[in-house]
Design a protein that fits this description.
Layout: H1 10-35, H2 37-44, H3 48-51, H4 53-72, H5 78-97, H6 102-123, H7 126-130, H8 136-164, H9 167-188, H10 202-207, H11 210-230, H12 233-240, H13 245-293, H14 301-330, H15 334-360, H16 365-378, H17 380-384
């Protein structure tokens, strides 16, 4: 859109920020039930393991839709499509807030998952269409920054809203944010040409590369493990460690603040030390989760906070790190490589919630955390076999 201009109009930056808010809203929608899992379980008289399916099934559907949408929506105008998808997301959250039973809640979540998957199928190339090449990195960081922030802040925010009011308030707040995003995109995002649709063999070409397979494998292992634990972080803190009330909300916000710290660290170091940064982050996550697994009601709240900081900062680095590694290595295959990454990421979220509920069927929350800590350590193996990207 502005490839030949060095000065980017302020309206374009507002559009970029609106897209960043949209990614925050989309990912917060996906993860919102994690922060209110106990309340949802009580409200619909379901077990926490069953209630966790509103996260896992959502993620699986979003992953499938993301891959299909890369081909289905290749020729659709970006602006109109993004406005439509944010509208669907807003409606799905409103319906979820007023769901009279668990089936209605699941139905609303599935509608949101379809919008989620289609959104991620097209958002990857929008930043490059909006700004000159020298600003693509900044624009992409703002747009995808919403993912990291939502992953670590969205859950404590929904938890705080639910504790202050009731759980449906969290969904209504997300719906309002989706409406704001939709209006901002409609006003400020210029009309963008649809990129050339992918050929049917593009995904197969990416999957032939051993380097991508290793990154995808590490991503699948780490993200699955993280969400197996993170889906049940609220019950772990409130039940196993017996943290309640305002202290629980503060600890969840501490986790989120650590994620923002992780993003700052990533921005400073990732171009020079990507491999080392991801490796240290995975190790830190493993230590943090293991420490929580071994904690009980006698543990100091400061120790619990420190372990959450280590875990939160580590996962934020991993989120951005693997995505950056894919983009650095993909070159002209960036779109299909990113599409596969997004699908694996969302499938891993769903797998994590599902595997977490399955493990809880045979062990305790602490036992689940020990399994996760081991899996996070194992995800280091494919990372250590890779070379630091040179570009």
């Amino acid at each position: 859109m502005h490839a030949s201009n060095e000065t980017v109009p302020w309206r374009i930056w507002v559009a970029v920020i609106a897209l960043g808010v949209s990614t925050f809203t989309i990912v917060t929608t996906e993860l919102a039930p994690i922060g209110i899992l106990s309340q949802l379980a009580d409200s619909f008289q379901k077990s926490e393991a069953t209630t966790g399916l509103v996260v896992s099934v959502y993620a699986w559907l979003a992953a499938a839709v993301a891959l299909v949408s890369v081909f289905l929506f290749g020729r659709f105008p970006r602006k109109g499509l993004l406005v439509a998808l944010m509208t669907i997301l807003a409606v799905s959250n409103v319906v979820a807030a007023f769901a009279p039973d668990f089936s209605s809640l699941m139905g609303a979540r599935m509608a949101g998952a379809i919008a989620h998957g289609a959104f991620w199928a097209i958002i990857g190339t929008v930043g490059a269409q909006l700004v000159p090449a020298r600003y693509v990195g900044v624009a992409t960081s703002i747009i995808f920054g919403g993912v990291s922030v939502a992953s670590v802040i969205g859950v404590p925010i929904t938890n705080a809203l639910a504790r202050e009011y009731v759980w449906d308030t969290a969904f209504l707040a997300i719906a309002a944010l989706a409406v704001v995003s939709m209006i901002a995109i409609g006003i400020f995002l210029p009309k963008l040409p649809a990129p050339v649709p992918l050929q049917s063999g593009a995904l197969r070409e990416v999957l032939k590369e051993k380097l991508f397979i290793r990154i995808y494998g590490a991503t699948a292992c780490a993200i699955t493990a993280h969400f197996a634990a993170f889906t049940y972080i609220e019950p772990l803190l409130s039940t196993s460690i017996e943290v309640t009330g305002q202290t629980l909300s503060i600890l969840l916000f501490t986790f989120g603040a650590a994620g923002i710290l992780g993003n700052i660290i990533t921005g400073k170091l990732i171009d020079r030390y990507l491999k080392a940064l991801i490796s240290i982050a995975l190790l830190a996550m493993s230590i943090g989760v293991l420490g929580l697994a071994l904690s009980n009601k006698e543990a100091s709240v400061y120790l619990i906070g420190a372990l959450l900081i280590v875990w939160g900062a580590g996962v934020a680095i991993v989120f951005v790190g693997f995505q950056t590694w894919i983009l650095k290595q993909a070159g002209p295959m960036a779109l299909p490589a990113s599409a596969i990454y997004v699908a694996i990421f969302n499938a891993a979220i769903g797998a994590g919630a599902f595997i977490g509920s399955s493990i809880l069927g045979i062990t305790t929350l602490s036992g689940l955390m020990i399994c996760v800590a081991i899996a996070l350590a194992l995800s280091l193996v494919p990372v250590l076999t890779l070379k630091q990207p040179t570009n």
